[in-house]
Give the backbone structure.
Amino acid sequence: MEKTLNVQGMSCGHCKASVEGALQKLDGVSAADVNLEAGTVVVSYDEVNVTIDTMVEAIEDQGYDVTV
Ligand SMILES: [Cu+2]
């Protein structure tokens, strides 16, 4: 599955790395790619092992707001 999440507050390469790293640490996430200009992250994941809620929480834990 692939899902695009809208993430508020990402402004630089550090933000990109934080969000991508938090997602890639999760079981079931195979890839995460932040687009800073668009304010989005595209996540490739296995829905058997991870939920959208878990991904949202992981991003929020880094200090960013998410809209699905
Ligand atoms: Cu930043």
About this structure: Strands lie at 2-8, 29-35, 40-45, 65-67. Helices lie at 13-24, 52-61.
